Amino acid sequence: MKKVACFGEVMMRLSTPGHQMFGQARQFNACYGGAEANVAISLATFGVPSSFITRVPANDLGECVWQELRRYGVGTQGVYTGGDRLGLYFLESGAGFRSSKVIYDRSHSSFAALAPGMIDWEAQLAGHDWFHWSGISPAVSQSAAEVCLEGVKMAKQLGLQISCDLNYRSKLWQYTDSPEEVMTELMALTDVVLANPDDAWHYFGIKAEGYDIDDPAYNEAVLRLLVQKFPNIKTAVTTLRRTINASHNSWAALMLQHDESLLSPVYDLNPIIDRVGGGDSFMAGLIYGLLQHPDDLQYALNFAVAASALKHSIEGDANLVKVADVAKLMEGSSVAARVSR
Amino acid sequence: MKKVACFGEVMMRLSTPGHQMFGQARQFNACYGGAEANVAISLATFGVPSSFITRVPANDLGECVWQELRRYGVGTQGVYTGGDRLGLYFLESGAGFRSSKVIYDRSHSSFAALAPGMIDWEAQLAGHDWFHWSGISPAVSQSAAEVCLEGVKMAKQLGLQISCDLNYRSKLWQYTDSPEEVMTELMALTDVVLANPDDAWHYFGIKAEGYDIDDPAYNEAVLRLLVQKFPNIKTAVTTLRRTINASHNSWAALMLQHDESLLSPVYDLNPIIDRVGGGDSFMAGLIYGLLQHPDDLQYALNFAVAASALKHSIEGDANLVKVADVAKLMEGSSVAARVSR
Amino acid sequence: MKKVACFGEVMMRLSTPGHQMFGQARQFNACYGGAEANVAISLATFGVPSSFITRVPANDLGECVWQELRRYGVGTQGVYTGGDRLGLYFLESGAGFRSSKVIYDRSHSSFAALAPGMIDWEAQLAGHDWFHWSGISPAVSQSAAEVCLEGVKMAKQLGLQISCDLNYRSKLWQYTDSPEEVMTELMALTDVVLANPDDAWHYFGIKAEGYDIDDPAYNEAVLRLLVQKFPNIKTAVTTLRRTINASHNSWAALMLQHDESLLSPVYDLNPIIDRVGGGDSFMAGLIYGLLQHPDDLQYALNFAVAASALKHSIEGDANLVKVADVAKLMEGSSVAARVSR
Amino acid sequence: MKKVACFGEVMMRLSTPGHQMFGQARQFNACYGGAEANVAISLATFGVPSSFITRVPANDLGECVWQELRRYGVGTQGVYTGGDRLGLYFLESGAGFRSSKVIYDRSHSSFAALAPGMIDWEAQLAGHDWFHWSGISPAVSQSAAEVCLEGVKMAKQLGLQISCDLNYRSKLWQYTDSPEEVMTELMALTDVVLANPDDAWHYFGIKAEGYDIDDPAYNEAVLRLLVQKFPNIKTAVTTLRRTINASHNSWAALMLQHDESLLSPVYDLNPIIDRVGGGDSFMAGLIYGLLQHPDDLQYALNFAVAASALKHSIEGDANLVKVADVAKLMEGSSVAARVSR
Amino acid sequence: MKKVACFGEVMMRLSTPGHQMFGQARQFNACYGGAEANVAISLATFGVPSSFITRVPANDLGECVWQELRRYGVGTQGVYTGGDRLGLYFLESGAGFRSSKVIYDRSHSSFAALAPGMIDWEAQLAGHDWFHWSGISPAVSQSAAEVCLEGVKMAKQLGLQISCDLNYRSKLWQYTDSPEEVMTELMALTDVVLANPDDAWHYFGIKAEGYDIDDPAYNEAVLRLLVQKFPNIKTAVTTLRRTINASHNSWAALMLQHDESLLSPVYDLNPIIDRVGGGDSFMAGLIYGLLQHPDDLQYALNFAVAASALKHSIEGDANLVKVADVAKLMEGSSVAARVSR
Amino acid sequence: MKKVACFGEVMMRLSTPGHQMFGQARQFNACYGGAEANVAISLATFGVPSSFITRVPANDLGECVWQELRRYGVGTQGVYTGGDRLGLYFLESGAGFRSSKVIYDRSHSSFAALAPGMIDWEAQLAGHDWFHWSGISPAVSQSAAEVCLEGVKMAKQLGLQISCDLNYRSKLWQYTDSPEEVMTELMALTDVVLANPDDAWHYFGIKAEGYDIDDPAYNEAVLRLLVQKFPNIKTAVTTLRRTINASHNSWAALMLQHDESLLSPVYDLNPIIDRVGGGDSFMAGLIYGLLQHPDDLQYALNFAVAASALKHSIEGDANLVKVADVAKLMEGSSVAARVSR
Q1: Which positions in chain A touch F113 (Cβ < 8 Å)?
Q2: Domain Carbohydrate kinase PfkB, which positions (chains A, B, C, D, E, F) (predicted)?
């Protein structure tokens, strides 16, 4: 089976239990995750061999990251040890009209302190067929951006498919005024991209006419402009999330490939147990779909949407459902939701 | 007041807290229940004297069953002690598009090891007016099926009304290829039956035209065929559950008696806290209704549906609402749902 | 900034975790609140200096009240110590068609045992601009009613604005057959009143034609009759709650001022995490709005409705959101409900 | 088997989890107990048929009392319904040098409001051989004291053995200045008494020479004076608790009968999980011992001490060990403490 | 580094939280363990490559076993899938004079249903230097005993060192009256054995003079008799546990090799957090010591005792401390117990 | 009453529940504390008006610090807002021979980024009589050290008493090789110092003859050398902790003033619930004692030891007992440890 390598930061996530606000919490639920690790774990759970490349501190919290990746069967040969601290983020879990809140506390992390030359990219990518990165890694520090570029270049050189989730986060990108420059170099080597209008705007100033992020047509127009700018992109995808409230969204996706656009079914997500990692689970589903069903793009897209629809019912960063669970949902949601006994 | 005896297995239920998946759970919530015990507990909570006939091991877990039944005021004279183990089941509580999952671990239980002659049926049923069994008991082992038949025959002999919830479970019935044979003998002595199209099909190969389990008309047609096959049945009922997702169902019921069919109001169940035991709570409501309002079948049916609508808001196997709670909901759901203070 | 003083009882609230019924609970979540304290805490969280006047016992539970008020920055100079016990209430948190239940256990509390002369009203109200009381205080005991009247009179004498939430509770008012008499004297001095048709009926026998509490027009008619009876009322408001089930309500409000009536937007509250304190959070939002935007009544009304819509997503008695959170929701709910990161 | 009836109040106990202080607790563990109910539950768990006579309010909390007693198999025919509230007590669980704290909140309870004539004592005591009361019941209110006296008189008349745990509590006895008078009348009819020097002093002004409550000889001297005052007492017992700290006590007992004094073995209790109910579990063990081994007083005493030593390892008010567990400890503590597998 | 393979069953352990009794528990803590898996996990945590050979069912609970082993870095190539159920055990955690209780529920497990030929022993043991089994595997079923013998024979053939923890459990061994026969054949191939007087007596009828299991000399005498019977044993070891109560033991060990006996230091274990797995952690420490310090038996023995002393402070079956933690304790307990900051 | 100002960092503390190891924790208990804030909170709880000077980020976690200080009545006028993050520390709670572990994550915190001129020391210290700082503040960053010196100088100028807890932490002091230089300047202005031999050695290279940190004489000798070096010190104190294991210590203290040395009683701490903050609670007790009993140094010392003995029974950083609790323990530990009811 094809093998996938992912590169990114793993953080400790500290979330308030139930729907407590930060000021109410006397306990935090702890788990470990990050945009790209969520992809690696979901792929491993789908049965796709995946490896993870990151850096963690040499303390008990860093070790928890090793344990968590190993537990799900993700390869940990690429987990480097060093640096000062594990990045953290705090999550206040919203409900109804009260949105979830994230407080990042990831500056000066072991990952952010990665420097060129630290990772033996050739060894780490050898034997893999796909390399996945996201816009978060180049955002955390200049040196991490450089390391990310090392990886993307080596992946290209070794002939791997390269995918990226643009994942623009306004609170990151502190070290530069021109994310565009950094991202352009990386994007020019990337084959599959997950991007939404916000990403396209903030990174590349791309905007289509008649701004309406809830409109599939507008999303498609943005993707077309993006592909125009980066003709190396083979597959461009966007998720279509409409937010009724923090507990209730609708969810779908749109794919653009060779001028052809495909639309997925729409899922009505209600209630949402945890929407963090929704996009990551979509990305994992997409990679799975493209690897396993390369000739059926509609299937690949639908698989990705169904997989991530299921993720919204799972607490924690990572999607833990299997291929059979996704397939069951694709057959029909009411069948899927009956008690399995 | 009329007295009801129920026969069946009581298991320890180990459910994941919140909506955790099995692989995430570090704790399990424990409670005790089973299809028929749920009926007995609900009846006792409605104020109907009920007794329970079962078998549990002579250890601390078996004792928990005694305590739980006693706590709700269910008669425990019929709880026999012996055998190797208490049956268990594990429950992963779903949400949204992720369905709940049940892993049964009930083989070789004290109940499954029941053998003819172990229960003094005459003593246990004396002084009762109604006997309730379900399709689960004959499914767990051949000897349990034989014991169930002993009970049904004695109940008939003593002049009790006999009710059954067909409750087909594909994971049980391991010991025989012909459940039909076993069930036919039992059904021929039964007066009131709760059956859905799936049960009718799997047990008796009964199927009506134009298969659509969400269609009341189809359900009625199946009930008519069932009653045709078992003319001894006085009252046949089916619940009508439409599954939007694991957290959202619609809920109603249909009754067939003397060729006349009655339809209940429809309840929109959202959110569902726990749907396990939904059918059992309906059965308890039905028995209550038929005993207390024998001349008003529509009331009996509506009571059963309202009672079980409330059950979906309660964690655990058993329905713990009282007659007054059900009556309040029957008056109008918006009144019922206001804070009582 | 203008300062607000509130008078009322603070109770320990003991609520069942999750959606457990009283009989299932082996633990109770504890917090501290009461109709008027909820107003004071919400105002302090909005940045409005607020003080609280109450009485608690001289034990560790009474001290918890001090700590909780101080924690949110509410002034505690008016917290008197004495009496026998802290009032309590037990809350069973409903879901779906099962309503929440409240068991009051507040008789003989330190607050109920307040007697005229105990509070130095002049000192406590000095330097304040607004005084808030609710119909609960005169309901708990005759002497508390007399103390409340002392406060209202002193507030009037010192030139404070006076507001009241009528808050009729049928389980209180044990000491008299004529709440009307008590309330009439208090109302005659009050400027701003929050009242719904139930309050108006039970206190003053006021009923408009064509009873329909879900109809804004009916609510407006009642408010008009109320203002007719108490021409001193400058602003009369009612909340419009429609109860689909215990987890799903719609929520809006209507204001009557100088013959002009204003209607707020409607919020669809689903799911409701905790509706206790919903009206109190509205009252706090209203006072904030009237103080900060005295010339824009529509804004004040809309602020109050949005603030209390958010409260329904927060466990506990008090609304803990800030002005910026409310403003974000007023801009549009789908924007508000996105993850803030 | 001989049957025992107990009379007293059942309260809801709200204890802080872990060793939290009141001001730290955001949750309270809830259970139900009281000095005399703890005796009844322990006896039922020993296999001695026991009945309980009390009064609880007609609400869901009162029902929890019913459920809890039934669960352990205690007869509930004597549980009357009525009155305003269930008595409560709050418990802060100490550790090391920090002692546990109790805040009683039991005034005006349904039990305290019991009045003469409410209990049909003849019916309740019929068929029983032993009646147990404690000094707490006459302490809560004058009318409860009168009801207690009714019970003791009827028990005497019907020929039951009567036992009492003196249980002096300084925070109770609010209604009278002379507990002595009340207690003297009750004690004059009592056969078996559990009393320590504090009880003897506070109730009857009894003090021996050379005050030292840790000295068995001093305790024996007090018991001799007590029996001198009440020659009707056949068996007088005291427990000998030495407090090293809140987590570490030593524990023994001394019995005086017909001038003969017996001393039990000493148990070193470390750690103590919960010492509330320690004396009650001793009383239950003593009644069991006297009923089952009437001719071996040393065995009865040792049984009571061993039973209550085990109670200190159990969270909650009531002792839940069985006769076999006690017997195992009596054989030797190191054997008892091995893992049973 | 030398590699160790272990063979045995992994069960789900369901333990009561805090020190609750079975009848009090509404939740169970879940973890996964078993005598031999505990050894493999501890070795992996010490940095010794270890593999595990077992069989689990093809369901979500079986998968939890995979995840748990992988998490700690134990090789899972030898985990076979099949059979009906995962073995369970329930644990009531004792305290003070109340001992812990175990209820096994492991009959008919996937492991117990292992049959000869199922495991490719040659492939599983290839590349390993040490094979560990315990007396529990041959005790669960005849076929498991046969599979165990297959493994031991293959290990011998491939030249591995073989160790065994005798681990006699009276509740197992249901299938035969002569465990001795089964065990003799296995023991004749074993090099290192952990045995206590109870094991020696129940398996082989070995008893020395002057029975006193707390006396090191008696233990040594038993070991000498055991080695006399099985001259192939190179190293025989016993742990010396003295039980003051369930929370307080003393702990040491004695080794016999070539007629020479060595005694370890004694550790005073107080409080004990969890003594389950104490012997397993000793065994892991011993294997580590013998592998890493083959020429310093005293060090190996002391390491094993210190490692297992630490285990008693850890909740769960497995010892999770590292070599450095053990070394710190060996340097002196008071140093070890200071806060590390 | 005299007023005390304290200066230092407040961190979020994330501790594993029960005695879980970091790798086992799925939840962390959260509280807020720091060496100097613990002093301020304890003083406020003793009734001594205290103020706190610190800096926290402008986010919800920074606000939790405000709330926590306010809750205990500590003055928060000196809490400045700014900087990037709240400092954190992770705590693994040990037991028996397994020591507790701390992982600091406080670099780059809002407090560490304090710079000279940020704090208006004159305003903050006005009206106070005592200023307390600890060796932790100058250790976190050079600029924090400079700010600390500003404070100490202003305190001296305004005539406040100045106290310091040396609190050497090897993991801090990253910015300089000569802590001695920094500390010497600060110490030269300090009146009361809490120092142990480790502090004296690491900061100032002070060592007495015959190194034995458990020996009071050795500790006294070190204090004499320290006072020799800093003749401005009026009162030098050291705590005497002997560590039997992580759950069991002995605890006392020694004071040196004007050549006279005083020794406190010794407390046997068993079990220890939480030893973090033990020294801080001692410091608070000492300040209280010196302020309230300036003429009875032995009382002041004994009060400090008793107060901190109680702290060891409380989970969390801060001591929450009152003066009356301490006084009760000083009267005799067995009296103190009885249930207060």
Answers
A1: none
A2: 1-316
Determine, for residues D67 and C23 on separate chains, whether the beta-carbon distance falls below 8 Å: yes
Q: Note the CATH number of domain A4-336.
A: 3.40.1190.20
Instruction: Write down which chains contact chain D via at least 3 CB pairs under 8 A.
Output: B, C, E, F
Q: Could you read off the pLDDT of F218-253 as tens digits, one per residue? A: 999 999 999 999 999 999 999 999 999 999 999 999
Contact E60 B17 (CB under 8 A): no
Task: Please give the Cα distance from C223 to C238 (Å, whole number).
Answer: 8
Between D and F, how many residue pairs show a Cβ–Cβ distance under 8 A? 81
| DSSP single-letter state for residue D159 | T
The CATH-assigned architecture of domain F4-331 is 3-Layer(aba) Sandwich (3.40)
The encoded tokens of residue F156 equal 């001296």
| E115 touches E143 (CB < 8 A) | yes
In angstroms, the separation between the Cα of residue C65 and the nearest Cα of chain F is: 10
F70 — alpha (psi -120 to 50), left (phi > 0) or beta? Answer: alpha
- Cβ contact, residue pair C70, F71, below 8 Å: yes
Q: Where are the alpha helices (DSSP H) in B177-319?
A: 179-187, 197-204, 216-229, 278-292, 297-311
Q: For residue C112, give every residue at least 6 positions away whose Cβ sits within 8 Å of its Cβ, in sequence order, or none.
A: C9, C87, C106, C140, C141, C143, C144
- Respond yes or no on whether ipTM tops 0.85: yes
Name the residue ranges covered by the structural domains of chain A: 4-336
Amino acid letter, E276? V
**E25·B27 Cβ contact <8 A:** no
Give the separation between CA B154 and CA B134, rounded to whole angstroms.
16
Residue E133: closest CA among E99, E157, E110, E156: E156
Q: What is the pLDDT along chain A (341 residues), one digit of tens a residue?
A: 899 999 999 999 999 999 999 999 999 999 999 999 999 999 999 999 999 999 999 999 999 999 999 999 999 999 999 999 999 999 999 999 999 999 999 999 999 999 999 999 999 999 999 999 999 999 999 999 999 999 999 999 999 999 999 999 988 999 999 999 999 999 999 999 999 999 999 999 999 998 899 999 999 999 999 999 999 999 999 999 999 999 999 999 999 998 899 999 999 999 999 999 999 999 999 999 999 999 999 999 999 999 999 999 999 999 999 999 999 999 986 555 667 76
Interface of B with E (CB under 8 A): 14, 17, 21-23, 25-31, 59-61, 63-64, 67, 84-85, 88, 90, 92, 101, 103, 105, 107-108
Q: Which amino acid is at A316?
A: G
Query: Chains contacting A with at least 3 CB pairs below 8 Å?
Result: B, C, E, F
Render pLDDT for D154-178 as a digit per residue (tens, 0 to 9).
Answer: 999 999 999 999 999 988 999 999 9
**Which one of E19, E21, E97 has the shortest CB-CB distance to D309?**
E97
Strand ranges for chain E from DSSP E: 4-7, 11-15, 27-33, 50-56, 75-81, 88-92, 101-105, 130-134, 161-165, 192-194, 235-245, 248-257, 260-263, 267-269
Q: Do F29 and A26 touch (CB under 8 A)?
A: yes
Query: Which residues, including other chains, have CB under 8 Å from residue D228's CB and lie 6 or more apart?
Result: none
Is the CATH code 3.40.1190.20 the one for domain E4-333?
A: yes
Fold of B4-330: UDP-N-acetylmuramoyl-L-alanine:D-glutamate ligase (3.40.1190)
Which residues does chain D have within 8 Å of residue C14's beta carbon, measured at their own beta carbons? 14, 28
Residue B246: its chain A contacts at CB < 8 A? Answer: 313, 337
Record: contact F21-E314, CB cut-off 8 A:
yes
Chain E residues closer than 8 Å to F98 by CB: 310, 313-314, 321, 325, 336-337
- Closest alpha carbon within chain E to A67: E71
Q: Which CATH architecture has domain D4-8+34-54+122-331?
A: 3-Layer(aba) Sandwich (3.40)
